[in-house]
């Protein structure tokens, strides 16, 4: 057994899920329909989440995995008990907006929705688990999309403010760590899923995306303000789908391409962490002829209410080229990337790069000097359970171990400030990118397949005991 240096005493080890990917019960206790409900599995999924194909309701001939998902709504006690058994210090989860405001523009929240989350948070506390709550993880009530056009409409800032005010008030003392928007940069890559945007023929897509992004950025700053007003103990973070871009070669044009791709994503965090639109973004808007409406008041709130910490998901690094002729993309990811010949890839083509995590952490630290939180990381893989539901997932343990080592080096050798680590899909759930159940990340296996068959029975994988040991030893015993 190799001994590693320990993580900080207060380090928040845990796992992460999102409402739409695990709760199910999509029409129960007054919940309204949301964008994340009407995205089916299959070949139309990508054009739908990209806002290119219209799907505003369930249609015949499709399967919608989020309707039932793994039914966390009815299994949360059992599931949280298992997380507690692993020794989780924190559990990242999200609120389904349409459980709280079924249409989105009501004045009075739905008590049954609030009660559900109160029960979940209390259950976490019972097991000594600190909740880490994503306010919106891709959710947008369908009514707001049909009536207002989703986040393209400024009115959404007001509705979001109403949502967060209700949440911070009701859950004061129960929840302290909040994230405003999951993977806020997803608006560029999957705008219907990320921000409820559907594009009509002939529309200026960039104009709509960046206007919507501005609304989300302002909403996020307002949320930070309100969170601190309601409870000074609240800590609010932004959340980026991260993963450093490498240049394809040492050619300066490739370096420039990599830097430009990184800026597309860091743009959001530059605003949320520094409080100002960076010059490169203003110039880009000018170049593209975009006219983003923003008020003096918007700029003030952005400046005055930056986030307390920077969180991100990290699965893979990426590669960019400045040479238009080089365009062999890797499969299976929403983010464009070339193949990296030095890395192996998952069954879904996501390139595995633990050192890339250290590079990404250091880059973000150098850019913002704010505490960081890795709120997603993990390996989506096909698991084959035995008759008892046990999976020998050594491949997952290997992936996580290498990333834990990289984090350890970043903290103990490089000196960055890292608050915690929540692995993605700590219990198997529906994939956001593909809608599959087959792409599993969990320590806990859930008996359910891509077509919705299965008993929903939960069972522990080999990685369950491994992660339990990692947490118990505060990252020193990881073999
Ligand atoms: P799935 C793509 C690239 C990076 C992060 O993804 C992404 C995606 C979307 O697929 O999303 C995050 O389930 C997201 C989670 C998602 C997770 O990555 O496609 O925050 O909702 O499940 C993993 O394998």
Name every ligand kind in the structure: 2-(hydroxymethyl)phenyl 6-O-phosphono-beta-D-glucopyranoside
Low-confidence runs of at least 5 consecutive residues: none
Calculate the terminal CA-CA distance, rounded to whole Å.
6 Å
Number of helices: 16
Main sheet characteristics = 8 strands, parallel, barrel
| Proportion of helical residues | 25-40%
Indicate the structural class: alpha/beta
Helix and strand succession?
Answer: EHHHEHHEHHEHHHEEHHHEEHEHEEEH
Class in CATH? Alpha Beta
Shape assignment: globular
Q: How much strand content do the residues show?
A: 5-15%
What fold name goes in the CATH topology slot?
TIM Barrel
Overall average pLDDT = 97
Please list the strands of the largest sheet in the order they lie side by side. 1-2-3-4-5-7-9-10
Q: Please, how many domains?
A: 1
CATH homologous superfamily heading: Glycosidases
How many strands?
12
Radius of gyration, in Å, reads: 21 Å
| CATH architecture verdict | Alpha-Beta Barrel
């Amino acid at each position: 057994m190799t001994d590693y240096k320990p993580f900080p005493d207060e380090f928040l080890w845990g796992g992460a899920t999102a409402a739409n990917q695990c709760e199910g019960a999509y029409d129960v206790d007054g919940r309204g329909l949301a964008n994340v409900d009407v995205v089916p599995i299959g070949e139309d999924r990508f054009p739908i989440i990209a806002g290119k194909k219209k799907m505003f309701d369930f249609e015949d001939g499709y399967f919608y995995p989020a309707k039932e998902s793994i039914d966390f709504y009815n299994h949360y006690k059992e599931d949280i008990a298992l997380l507690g058994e692993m020794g989780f210090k924190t559990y990242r989860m999200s609120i389904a907006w349409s459980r709280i405001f079924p249409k989105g523009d009501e004045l009075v929240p739905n008590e049954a929705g609030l009660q559900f989350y109160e029960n979940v948070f209390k259950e976490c506390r019972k097991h000594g688990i600190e909740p880490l709550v994503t306010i919106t993880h891709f959710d947008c009530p369908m009514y707001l999309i049909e009536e207002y056009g989703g986040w393209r409409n400024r009115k959404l800032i007001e509705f979001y403010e109403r949502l967060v005010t209700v949440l911070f008030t009701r859950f004061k003392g129960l929840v302290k760590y909040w994230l405003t928007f999951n993977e806020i940069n997803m608006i560029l890559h999957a705008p219907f899923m990320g921000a409820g945007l559907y594009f009509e023929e002939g529309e200026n897509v960039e104009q709509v995306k960046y206007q919507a992004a501005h609304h989300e950025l302002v909403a996020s700053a307002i949320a930070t303000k309100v969170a601190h007003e309601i409870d000074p103990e609240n800590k609010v973070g932004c959340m980026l789908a991260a993963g450093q871009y490498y240049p394809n070669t040492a050619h300066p044009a490739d370096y420039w391409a990599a830097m430009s791709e990184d800026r597309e994503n860091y743009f959001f965090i530059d605003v949320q962490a520094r409080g100002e639109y960076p010059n490169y973004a203003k110039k880009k808007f000018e170049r593209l002829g975009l006219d983003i409406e923003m008020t003096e008041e918007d700029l003030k709130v952005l400046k005055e209410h930056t986030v307390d910490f920077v969180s991100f998901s990290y699965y893979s690094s990426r590669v960019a080229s400045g040479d238009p002729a080089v365009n062999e993309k890797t499969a299976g990811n929403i983010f464009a990337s070339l193949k990296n010949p030095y890395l192996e890839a998952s069954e879904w083509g996501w390139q595995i790069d633990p050192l890339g995590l250290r590079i990404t952490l250091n880059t973000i630290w150098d850019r913002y000097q704010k505490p960081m939180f890795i709120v997603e990381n993990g390996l989506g893989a096909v698991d084959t359970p035995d008759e008892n539901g046990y999976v020998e997932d050594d491949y997952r343990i290997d992936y996580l171990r290498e990333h834990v080592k990289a984090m350890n080096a970043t903290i103990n050798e490089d000196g960055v400030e890292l608050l915690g680590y929540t692995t993605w899909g700590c219990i198997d759930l529906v994939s956001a990118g593909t809608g599959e159940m087959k792409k599993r990340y969990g320590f806990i296996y859930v008996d359910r397949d891509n077509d919705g068959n299965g008993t929903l029975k939960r069972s522990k994988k080999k990685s369950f005991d491994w992660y339990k040991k990692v947490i118990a030893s505060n990252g020193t015993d990881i073999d």
